[in-house]
TrEMBL record:
It comes from Nicotiana sylvestris. TPR repeats lie at residues 770-803. Pfam families: TPR_8 (PF13181). SMART domains: TPR. The keyword Iron does not apply. Gene3D superfamilies: Potassium Channel Kv1.1, Chain A, Tetratricopeptide repeat domain. One of its GO terms (biological process) is negative regulation of ethylene-activated signaling pathway. PROSITE patterns: TPR (PS50005). PANTHER family: ETHYLENE-OVERPRODUCTION PROTEIN 1 (PTHR44203:SF8), ETO1-RELATED (PTHR44203). Keywords: TPR repeat. It comes from the Eukaryota. This is Ethylene-overproduction protein 1.
Amino acid sequence: MQHNIFTTMRSLKMMEGCKGTQVYALNQSIDGGGGGVGEKFLQNLLSKNSIRSRSNSNFQAVQSKDEVNSVVLAEAFASYGLPKTDQLEPQIEFCLKPMNFVETLADVYRRMEGCAQFDKSRMYLEQCAIFRGLPDPKLFRRCLMSARLHAVDVHSKVVLSAWLRFERREDELIGVSAMDCCGRSMECPGSALLAGYNPESATDPCICDRGMRKDEDTEIYMDEECSTSLSRGDEEDEDFDMSFCIGDDEIRCRRFNIASLSRPFEAMLYGSFIDSRREKINFSKNEISAKGMKAAEMFSRTKSMDSFDPDIVLELLSLANKFCCDGMKSVCDAYLASLVFDMDTAMLLFEYGLEGNAYLLVAACLQVFLRELPNSMHNPNVSRLFCSSEGKDRLAYIGHASFLLYYFLSQSAMEDDLKSNTTVMLLERMGECASESWQKQLAFHQLGCVMLERKEYKDAQKWFEAAVEAGHVYSLVGIARSKYKRGHMYKAYKLMNSLVSDYTPSGWMYQERSMYCQGKEKTMDLSTATELDPTLSYPYKYRAVSMAEENRLGRAISEINRILGFKISPDCLELRAWFLIVLEDYEGALRDARALLTLNPRYMMFHGKLQGEHLVEILSHNVQPCSQADCWMQLYDRWSSVDDIGSLAVVHHMLANDPGKSLLRFRQSLLLLRLNSHKAAMRSLREARNQATSEHERLVYEGWILYDTGYREEAIAKAEESISIQRSFEAFFLKAYVLSETSPDSESSLYVIQLLEEALRCPSDGLRKGQALSNLASVYVDVDKLDNAIDCYTNALNIKHTRAHQGLARVYHLKDQRKLAYDEMTKLIEKAKYNASAYEKRSEYCDREMAKSDLGMATKLDPLRTYPYRYRAAVLMDDHKETEAIAELTKAISFKPDLQVLHLRAAFHDSMGDLTSAIRDCEAALCLESRHADTLELYQKVQQRAKEQLPT
């Protein structure tokens, strides 16, 4: 039937009708009058009388004129254009992509170790740019925190603090303002405005509370001081020995105090000028009011302006600039900066700061703009300031234009709207601020990528060529793509062919060259690309669509399943949903559509012509409806079979029925983390926090947000605060989880056991209790209480926590019961839908040949798992096949530069006497984790041996 359906759609020649750019657009189909079968179908199906067409044993099918036939459904989606191979293109990466990633990491580490303390922040920023392209966002955030830790000037602190906050997306939390901080000085807006270098204090609690108390005390003190000064003014009139006349007002002053404000005043009052001998000086033409001059006189005595109104302080700032009163200007600057706390105030004072050359005031305003991103860029005045060359020059004059600033602004703009003029202009300013080679490479390459997305191919080629000239060889991919888009396919092929010839081949090189060739050559290039880098999605997608075009839909789905088994992405889920619709497997298609929308709620399907939510609505009419209770049963089944995509889809369905359920959002975030979708997981966690109906629940979700962004102590504090309000499973679990990660010693382990036992006494469902039992068992293993661990794992299995098989196998192995351990892992393999980790773990409980077989299967299912490569390399080394062992590790490093793999390869190089390569690998590993004890020890040993071998 499936082939007949596909043939029917092909015979309708709807593919030909889809070659236009906006044919059958969704808005046209809903709002327009006539149209193709897709338009009529959507109008019919989305009406309230639409019903499911096929009969089902679990519910009654209704026969009516509105009944939708499954063939019509398939034809309707054909009207949007089935996927075609010539429409597929690999994505050009927007980040820095060195030709030799390991060499680059090693070089950065060497320069980091050798640079001055004040330069470390700049080095960490370069490291950020390199890590941006890695799948683990924690590496980027950690470098960003290190850059902030070592920042010296206020400008860098302001930008980096705002960037750290942006990465946590606190703007999405209800009730949190832009100027709030999480409790650490590293993100505290007040700390960012303090100049000086003190990396030790950056991890201290923020100064907010202490600062407020200090300000309150100071205000009382200054009020007394000011009142005393004012009361003394008339009594001690004889102390005044001169006057400034402004209009009809005469401001009595002390000549010495005014002269002490600056050299110009000193010259005026004590120099060889006529004014120096006068008691009354006409000051009317100096653009300051009498009230302002009285304030200046008071400042000359008190050195404070806490009692002055802001407009008076602005006058004093102008006077300070005119007469070079540096001390008074600094106090004015700091005072005005302390007034900036929201967008309105920042917009009001920003221009004064620029005109008055007030560095701190501009920094404070800049801080608000950056903390309000991306919304602040929608303000035309803010956008004009940052985007225009004039605005950049004005910022530069006062010391607030930098590559760092425009790097942050452009990244935010690209996330907000990649193709916008704002994005282009910010990237242009970023390029103008670039001084180092890597900065130019990044700015020009990203400009090329944006221009390519905007279909401005000539400009794209120009910027890619500039990036290559700056040293970014990967930008040759952009040049080739731009040439191809301009009709020069052969030139693009020649360019990529020379790249393959001139450099060590990588998967992305063959992937890109495949774009410009046909037939067997294309197939071979795609196969080589997958072999060198199995994480590239384009080759799988191309092969799958090729099979679909040949009516081999089963094979097409199997091909796309290969990558979905270890790397979940919206485009691959969409492709599988497309195939499943053709096969009339609407339940499977609905599952994939729901999972896709969990990853990206705004995803547009079918060439960007159909909103994902509309597809879900359409497909929902063709599957059996489920109640919330049915969904819970399905969730248990999916969870126990380790079907994370299926679980995501069920949770999405449950949220559609009960959108305000924070607990479901939290479950969603856990599943997304398991699928390495960190960005989507954090979005779900923030939504869970916003939808929490109780204070204690909200605190738990805030704790998880803090933990996932590197603030462990603050996360524990949130858990403890939640427990003080109400004892709950999630609060105890959070505290136990964070403590187990933070303090691995035996005393802490015993405390973690107590916390998990307390969690299990609190109400929760089986899904979470199964996880808690499994975690508790793991801690029991750590403290050598194996029988207790067995009990916990068994109880977890009794409530369908299937992953407990792995923990139980570990316990049997520790008890020297390898057969039982092997059997437990076999049970997990049989139950789990995604079982690469199960094959990997089972390999530890069998002989070498069986282990090699299991690890081969693990690599086939999930090539991102690095243990199989390390094991095979170790076996090869044991067999004295050193070259093959190094090659095995190099294969993994080429697409996943893993710390453990780099460390092992360094050790192998050391054992072979290749000290140069060993040092390089150690430095690359330490660039990923500078405190890795084993690598540090090996690095020091190899360095010492290298020194000993140097000629005397």
